[in-house]
Write a structure and sequence with these properties.
The N and C termini lie far apart (42 Å). The protein contains seven helices and six strands, in the order E-H-E-H-E-H-H-E-H-E-H-E-H. A six-stranded parallel sheet has the order 1-4-3-2-5-6, sandwiched between helices. It is of the alpha/beta class. It has a domain of 93 residues: Rossmann fold, CATH 3.40.50. The relative contact order is 0.19.
Length: 166
Amino acid sequence: MGAGILSLHEAILQFGPGKRNGRRVVFTNGCFDLLHPGHIETLEKARNLGDALIVGVNSDRSVRAMKGVGRPILPELERAEILAALECVDAIVIFDEPTPRETLAALLPDVLVKGGDWASDQIVGREEVEAAGGQVVLVPVVSGHSTTAILEKIRKLDVPGRTERQ
């Protein structure tokens, strides 16, 4: 049984009672366009910080606004389905805003996890989570893995005039 892809309201209803009974809810977010080992390690570390992991996934529109034309590679529901299949993920919430601030303000997770490449003062939702008694945890970024790097590698392979069998 995989994780569910939930609306924000459904996530609040599903995880709110557990929070009130001492279960630690962890939240992290991202585009997750072309899942790679860095994503997996971050998600597993995030899950180990609590009893349930909710992953916020940027909608197609918000990814396009952030990353530009041609992104995302995979549509939001496919990205969400892939993440939902991971054992460490308990729920997925797709958000359409440029940042997950509204989602975080509504969920108020016990732990907000971001990659260590984020400056402390740049973490969206930090104020809301900490004001509610939660904490922000930075996990080290796994070097050598990024969706942008994967796409660059693919683009270099796409040489004009080259056939598939060459």
